[in-house]
Amino acid sequence: MSDTPDIRKGLVGVYADVSAVSKVMPETNSLTYRGYPVQDLCENASFDETAYLLWHGELPTAGQLTAFRTQEKANRALSPTLLRVLAEFPKSAHPMDALRTAVSFMGMEDPEAADISDAAQRRKAMRLLAKIPTAVAATNRISKGLAPIAPDQGLPFCENFFHMVFGKVPAPEVIKAFDVSMILYAEHTFNASTYTARLVTSSMSDMHSAITAAIGSLKGPLHGGANEAVMHMLKEIPSPDVAEAWLRERFDHKALVMGFGHRVYKTGDSRVPTMKKYAEVMARVVGDERWMKTSAVLAQVMLTEKNIHPNLDFPAGPAYYLMGFDIPMFTPIFVCSRITGWAAHVLEQGADNRLIRPLSHYTGVTERAVVPLASRG
Length: 377
Ligand code: SDX
What we know:
Layout: E1 22-25, E2 30-33, E3 36-37, H1 38-44, H2 47-56, H3 62-74, H4 80-88, H5 95-109, H6 118-143, H7 157-166, H8 172-185, H9 192-201, H10 207-218, H11 226-236, H12 243-252, H13 272-286, H14 290-306, H15 313-323, H16 330-351
Antiparallel strand pairs: 1-2, 2-3
């Protein structure tokens, strides 16, 4: 019998723990947050209601939502020290590196940083939910030589983000499309960045350390960085009518097509139809159908030729581009949403913790004796 254990590289197909936060059902191509289908939340709830749901397990009452929103608004501002630190970042810094550093700095400022009790972790999660968008908007403006715009406590979550980035609030259809994208990006079981946050939490480390690590994981183009890569790819294609030829040329080079494929969904990402619908709304609002027409050609060819379906990043990229965001902001915007899912998993891991420490099967050199330096030639 072989002494090689059952190695699952990439942990493909491995159930590492239980979780009550969300459920991905590839067989029916669906996703629920605390039992609610995401499509239902997109049509009948808001992103901050969804954040409350992920953290508390239930949708808020009107009174609970008012209190939640009051707390979020009150925590949006960054400290003067952090604003000075942001201004010192290299102008060439990638916005995900800037955000990773900003969150790490928030940890150094947070009076409850070392307290990993559930109550303290929840308060820190709220501070991160409120401050991360402010940091994303500020670093974007500073990188362009513009002064940051302070958060406006009189505005709801999504409207305030546009206010801090652009200095104005767009039409309600744009806000709705953004709110839907935030709900869809919020949570997705044990994806790489979420599991990173759980792994850090498993050693009894703190919320800011877990979220800083998760940001590092999400940055990668195989994960959250794909939404930026999708837009760069679409912009490489001169027009929809040459999209098929452009794609076939990539097939010849066995290159990955960003925004396609998924480790869990093999017959399509449950979130894509909803995000595609709102990306099409954005195309109509802006009057620019190019990106969605090119996307349709790519999706059709990938399906017929490779049987590979688009994932959420594929429609999210053009949607954010049509909203007017700079491409390097796309993955930081993903963080503004996923902080809710990450924090829910940090709380869950902390409540029933076991140090995460897998095994490795050794395939290196067989055991040997050390030869003293004098004899090593
Ligand atoms: C996210 O896990 C989550 O839930 C993540 C996420 C979330 O909400 O947190 O959904 C967000 O990260 C979405 C994924 C974004 N990444 C990309 O769009 C990057 C491109 N996609 C691929 O890198 C890939 O599809 C992955 C990484 C997403 C999944 O990788 P797997 O599971 O290891 O891929 P696989 O084993 O199923 O691939 C099977 C075959 C392979 O070919 P062979 O080696 O068998 O010949 O399909 C090929 C792959 O090369 N393939 C692709 C492809 N995706 C898979 N070929 C070309 N382009 C692609 N995009």
